[in-house]
Amino acid sequence: MKPGGFTAFDANSHQALATTFADATETEVNTAINRANEAFASYSQLSPEKRAHFLRTIGDKINALGDELITTACTETGLPAIRIQGERGRTVSQLGLFANLLEKGEYDTVIELADNDRQPLPKPDTRLGYLPLGVVGVFAASNFPLAFSTAWWRHCIGPRCGLPCSDESSCCPPCYCRISGTSHFSGY
Question: Tell me, what's the pLDDT at 141?
Answer without folding.
Answer: 56
